[in-house]
Amino acid sequence: MRFEGKTVVVTGASSGLGYIIARDFAKEGATVIAVARRAERLEKLVEDTAGMVGSVLPYVGDLSKKENAEGMIDFAVEKTGKLDVLVNNAGVMDEFKPIGEMSDELWDWVMAVNLHGPVIAMRKAVNVMLEQESGGNIVNIASIGGVCGARAGAAYTASKHALVGVTKNTAFMYAHRGIRCNVLCPGGIETEVMESQTDISEFGVSRVMGGLDTAIPAGKPEDITPSVFFVASDDAKFTNGSVIVIDGGVSCN
Ligand SMILES: NC(=O)c1ccc[n+]([C@@H]2O[C@H](COP(=O)([O-])OP(=O)(O)OC[C@H]3O[C@@H](n4cnc5c(N)ncnc54)[C@H](OP(=O)(O)O)[C@@H]3O)[C@@H](O)[C@H]2O)c1
After folding, report:
1. Is 186's C-beta closer than 6 angstroms to any atom of ligand 1?
2. What is 233-252 written as a DSSP string?
3. E strand intervals along 142-177
4. The domain that contains 25 carries what CATH number?
5. Is this model's pTM higher than 0.85 or not?
6. Which of 10, 93, 145, 181 sits a CA distance of 20 to 30 A from 193?
7. Pick from 34-38, 118-122, 248-252: least confident
8. Residue 249 in domain
9. How far is the CA of 92 from the centre of ligand 1 (A)?
């Protein structure tokens, strides 16, 4: 049990990557604060993890709102007295819109969920972690769209690049204060992320697809969780500010 007794906040835990990350942290003994908007999905996660060594406590909220990004950290401390790991995983795509086709609303929404929410949560979490002797650990989920410009539209790409930057700065600033912060950059993973995408830019998607090595299949959430556990564990005590690309080699072309 690698995370027995640990308190872990996982955002975007109602589907895809976050669901599996939250489930497997509970399997490894953690008390998991599972955060998303869809309460019924979080209840399903509670059911699926019943009987595991760890447990799941749902926190329902829209993370584009400051009160929820801060509130989930308060909730973790209220329930368990501490916060060991924050996994900022919740995120949305941007219809592959290049900047010439992007609306103000799309930009604001993608930045609010993918960047502003995680940043507000990190600020709150860091201040809790600085107060506790055990320090803490932040794992951000960006994307290969956070290290190159050819995987999504302008807003998604900007939000994930910025998340990579905030990760590096946080890692550097608190490296001597017991807090580590790393960012994972997955390639294509089979999840529900495209289901909300109803107005995809034909031009944008054709540019992205044109540059993809389609011989390499998409991954599964389970292909990402070992790296989450590694950076969140003491095995990674010298891994800080790292940008870890996990894409089966797609971005090598
Ligand atoms: N799938 C991929 O190919 C891929 C590749 C690279 C990176 N990523 C990143 O991986 C992360 C997880 O994505 P996924 O692929 O697992 O997608 P997903 O299945 O669509 O899951 C996204 C999660 O984020 C939550 N979420 C979205 N907007 C939210 C909001 N405003 N407030 C609170 N929660 C919100 C959703 O929950 P509710 O709808 O219930 O709120 C859901 O749990 C994202 O950051 C994504 O950018 C994915």
Report:
1. yes
2. SGGGTT--S-EEEESTTGGG
3. none
4. 3.40.50.720
5. yes
6. 181
7. 248-252
8. no
9. 5
